[in-house]
Amino acid sequence: MSPTVNERAQTFLQVVRRVIRLAAPYFRSDEKWKARLMFATIVALNLGYVYVAVLGNQWYGRFYDALQNKDSVAFWREVGVFGWIAFFNIAVQVLKFYVTQLLQLRWRTWMTREYMSRWMANHTFYHLELARYAGKEGQAPDNPDQRIQEDMQMFTSATMTLSMGLLNAVVTLVSFVGLLWALSGSVSFTVAGTTYQVIGAMVWIALGYSVVGTVITHFIGRPLIKLNFMQQRYEADFRHHLVRVREYSEAIALDKGEKVERGQLDLRFSSVLRNYLLLIKQQKNLVTFTAFFGQAAVIFPFIVAGHQYFAGAFQLGHLMQIRSAFGSVQEALSWFVDNYDSLAVWRAVTDRLSGFDDSMTAHAAQEHALQRTPAAALQGDDLAIALPNGSSLLAGTALAVKSGESVLLQGPSGSGKSTLFRTFAGIWPFSKGRLQVPDNVAFMPQRPYVPDGKLRDALTYPNPATNFSDDQLRQALTDALLPDLAGRLDDSDAWSQKLSGGEQQRLAIARVLLRKPAWLFADEITSALDAQAESTLYQRLTAMVQAAGGSMVSIAHRAAVGEFHGQRWTLVPRTDGAAGGARYRLEASPAQAAAT
User: Fold this and answer.
1) For 574, phi and psi rounded to 5 degrees?
2) How much is the pLDDT for 596?
3) Of the candidates 134, 579, 131, 588, which has an alpha carbon nearest to the alpha carbon of residue 394?
4) What angle do CA 236, 238, 244 make, to 5 degrees?
5) Least confident among 316-330, 413-427, 548-562
6) Distance of CA 333 to CAs 15, 330, 338, 501, 541, Å?
7) What is the Cα–Cα distance from 308 to 187, expressed in whole angstroms?
8) Alpha helices, DSSP H only, in 69-200?
């Protein structure tokens, strides 16, 4: 069912509001005066460009009259005038290009940094991914990396280009419509014995020609908006999977998963091709019409005004002025036709960025039910933890760990051990209750993050390497059983690919030994190590937290880890159906007894 006029108007207003919401913050930011001055300069240069075009139209009349009259003096005089017009035209275009590109660069820089700050603030990047994997499409934009890196560049560039193009079209229309009205005079025609006279006929013809072209263009090109939106999504999905194959190259090679991954890549690339072919087909239809429309506009004014010229109503220069003015008016009125493809891409980019902006705004407005405060020890009261799909893991849970105590957390796979740690860290959004957590604390995930670059930066992450001396860095690597890396602090590499799983775990332990936190939450941090290495490193970590007057809480499946902990917490499946449908309850017991 086709949308009504009112629905189309509402859609147009919605797009305008989205563009204003995305664009306005930069022009109200700390850079607002520079941005506004540059924007005003571009507007002034556009006005200058149109003024030069008006001068060019007047030149057409004088130049072609000189040709018709075989007036060599006037001819060479107009050649000199053309030189000045061309000079100013080139100067205006070059300056306009430079200032426009500079404003686009500054705008993109500000916008990218602003959105990166919002994306990285308050764990937004993490929570949006959780919502995406939970299937909450309205709350989870796909490929935020593409939206920040590519869409913002396209938005700022297209917004400047299209807005200045529209301004240029409006100013051109205002400047030339009066000129065309005066040049075209009146046209008389007889119908059924009655003579009619149309004043400014060329203006009305240009208007009708452009209106018909605009309506047909919109009808042909409307599907391009959705096709461009989907093309960007499919391209990003394909690129994302290529990156995953590169990141997990070793695991894929060991599993001999090349055929499967090739199939997955082919599947995603097929989506890219299928949508692109539809895009090409639709663009072909649009280009066919716009090319015909543009070519017809070249000869159209000669056909309309030719009979008057041959009747001696005016000279060749006047005819060429009519053709030039008609072309300018028609081109201004046909701005929508000429830019429809660009508008479709711009609309798709605007929709994607608006969705990203809406998701981050909604996340910032969410109220977190977990009351997390700093304290000298770990204590939780009435804790409730759920999965992103709403399934309850724990409910009404109380727990406490005092300084000097150590706890081993165990339970079946998938019972929520790591999720409980995420709650302690304050990054799990699906938890509520009251929680007190010490300040001087470090959390070690199952899979440590190892950034590319210099080894010293990977070792001290997220702290600057300058906070530590080389001797401290080497000692930490030695204590973490990585003495072979002690002499490679300034080597740059893709360490997540270079180091084995066990080496990455030991590098993460070296980080903690550098920071010396009082409290440590360790999630399967020695799962890739042999028993001797595990025992040695747990001894050193235990000594570190004891010396700082803190405690250690660990997740581990190996019973041998129990000897470094005094208590054991176990997540036990519930069978009584109590506690609001929670699937597990937390039981405490001595760790040594549990290990035996």
Assistant:
1) -85, 140
2) 37
3) 579
4) 100
5) 316-330
6) 21, 5, 10, 64, 74
7) 9
8) 72-120, 124-133, 144-146, 152-184
What's the rounded Cα separation, in Å, for the pair 108 and 154? 9
When pLDDT is averaged across residues 367-394 and rounded to a whole number, the result is 87
Interatomic CA distance for residues 112 and 35, integer angstroms: 16
- Pairing assessment for the beta strands 441-444 and 519-523 based on DSSP bridges: parallel
Determine contact, residues 472/423, Cβ cutoff 8 Å: no
Q: What are phi and psi of 162, to 5 degrees?
A: -70, -40
Amino acid at 437: V
The token duo for 273 is 């091709």
Report yes or no: 462 and 454 within 8 Å, Cβ to Cβ. Answer: no
CA distance 231 to 276: 7
Q: To the nearest whole number, what is the mean pLDDT of the chain?
A: 84
Our CA angle for 209, 212, 213, nearest 5°, is 85
What is the distance between the alpha carbons of residues 486 and 480, in angstroms, rounded to a whole number?
Answer: 11
> How far is the C-alpha of 417 from the C-alpha of 523, rounded, in Å?
8
- Residue type (1 letter), 514: L
Distance CA 1, CA 8 (A): 13
pLDDT exceeds cutoff 90 at 536: yes
Question: What type of residue is 527?
Answer: S
Burial category of 363 from C-beta neighbours within 10 Å (exposed 0-12, middle 13-18, buried 19 and up): buried
117 token code pair? 């700050």
Provide the residue type at 553 as one letter: V
> CB count, 10 Å around CB of 77?
14
| Joined tokens for residue 167 | 């301004």
pLDDT band (50, 70, 90) for residue 517: very high
Identify whether the C-beta of residue 301 lies closer than 8 Å to the C-beta of residue 326: yes
Q: 442 has which bridge partners?
A: 520
The position carrying tokens 């629905």 is: 7
Judged by average pLDDT, the poorest of 57-71, 82-96, 97-111 is 57-71
- Among 469, 457, 438, smallest CA distance to 545 is for 438
Neighbours of 112 (CB within 10 A): 15
pLDDT at 580: 62
Which amino acid makes up residue 190? T
pLDDT-derived band at 196 (thresholds 50, 70, 90) equals low
Q: How far apart are CA 9 and CA 7, in angstroms?
A: 5
Separation between Cα atoms, residue 239 and residue 340, nearest integer Å:
28
**HEC string of 132-159?**
HHCCCHHHCCCCHHHHHHHHHHHHHHHH
pLDDT, residue 35, reads 92
Residue bearing the bigger pLDDT, 49 or 482: 482
Strands 378-386 and 392-401: antiparallel
Count of C-beta atoms within a 10 Å radius of residue 74: 15
Residue 323 neighbours by CB distance under 10 Å: 22
Chain center to CA of 486: 39
pLDDT reading at 585 higher than 90: no
The answer to whether 22 and 107 have CB atoms below 8 angstroms apart is no
Radius of gyration of the chain (CA): 35
Integer angstrom CA distances of residue 48 from 91, 95, 139, 456: 10, 11, 46, 56
